[in-house]
Design brief:
By secondary structure, the chain is mainly alpha-helical. Helices cover 74% and strands 0% of the residues. The chain is built from 14 helices and no strands. 23% of the residues are buried.
Length: 341
């Protein structure tokens, strides 16, 4: 078992190398890079070439300016050389400097960590702590009133896109034509530092509730129904009927036998949650005024901020691969009989 996980860890290296190789070349060949953007700003910001006799001189100045920009951003070197230099720096966890923010990429990314981690962990806890028990109850009360009523509510929420639900909640509860209960945007209030400990918790709760609801609404329904259907499948299995025939109580059969096997499909979704910590949701973050990884990734591509975009891709790829390993580890915790070779 330990050898399996060690192999998985070592296999992350060539996988990550392949991801960086493909993404680096794709990102680098995107049109409208930092050199083109700086040149456009010069041309349309009052730096147009002069007319008449000065045109040749202006063209020469512009050419020298372009060459200086290429050297500044490292585009004066061939693409394979740029990749080699970037990969060499990456091995020592140096992600380079942001073109747009003009500061180290790692600092730009770390600034967005709080939003992504807070919402990621909260989404994980809410989904698993509520959806798993709810799915179990629905399975044990299959085709009864509670099952039908809860399914109606769950699928109604599932049918609404997260960003659309957030807009609706903002209109209803954020000082529009109806109620003024929750703040409209941001993660904290302006006077957050002046609040007491419990006041800060309450302030975070009021800011997080609506966007967090929009975050989890889709995964909430999926996880609940997956848990229910998985448990129903186990309850109808032959080994469960055999356990009942041996005289075991329903509680022991469900909890000790059926539930353990039913949790295995749930463990597969763990890696998705880990990646969701960093991917976030662009629309939800933009609507809520949250500075998370989703908004940062979108802005980095929009601004052709290659170092930041590549840094996000690398970090997200590593977390997804680690999440997959943790999912396999969760298998062995749920059912020790599973033995990866």
């Amino acid at each position: 078992m330990n050898a399996y996980f060690i192999r998985r860890l070592f296999l992350m290296l060539p996988t990550l190398w392949g991801i960086t190789l493909v993404t680096f070349f794709i990102v680098q060949i995107l049109p409208g890079g930092p050199v083109e953007q700086a040149l456009s700003a010069l041309r349309f910001g009052g730096g147009e070439m002069a007319e008449g006799g000065a045109s040749a001189s202006a063209a020469k100045i512009e050419e020298e300016y372009v060459e200086a920009l290429k050297k500044h951003y490292g585009f004066d070197k061939p693409l394979p050389v740029r990749y080699y230099n970037w990969l060499k720096d990456l091995l020592v966890l140096d992600f380079g400097e942001s073109y747009y923010y003009e500061e180290p990429v790692i600092d730009v990314i770390v600034e967005r960590f709080p939003v992504s981690i807070i919402f990621g962990i909260a989404s994980l806890l809410i989904t698993y702590l509520i959806c798993v028990p709810l799915g179990i109850i629905k399975a044990l009360r299959h085709q009864r009133f509670f099952d039908y009523a809860s399914s109606l509510v769950i699928f109604a929420g599932y049918s609404i896109p997260g960003f659309a639900l957030l807009i609706l909640l903002i209109v209803l509860f954020c000082g529009g034509s109806y109620y003024d209960i929750f703040p409209m945007q941001g993660l904290t209030s302006e006077n957050f530092s002046e609040l007491s400990f419990f006041g800060k918790i309450a302030d975070l709760f009021m800011h997080m509730l609506l966007p967090l609801t929009a975050y989890v609404i889709g995964m909430f329904a999926f996880t609940t129904m997956l848990m229910k259907n998985s448990l129903i499948e186990q309850i109808t299995a032959d080994y469960v009927r055999t356990a009942y025939a041996k005289g075991l109580s329903g509680k022991i059969v469900i909890v000790k036998h059926a539930l353990r096997n039913a949790l295995i499909p749930i463990a597969t979704g763990f890696s998705e949650f880990v990646s969701f910590f960093f991917a976030g949701s662009i629309l939800i973050e933009k609507i809520s005024g949250l500075d998370g990884f989703g908004a940062l990734g979108y802005e980095s591509l929009l601004n052709r901020d290659y170092p930041v975009a590549l840094g996000i891709i690398v970090i997200t790829s590593v977390t997804v691969m680690v999440g997959n390993i943790l999912s396999d580890f969760a298998y062995t915790v749920i059912d020790p009989r599973i033995d990866f070779k």
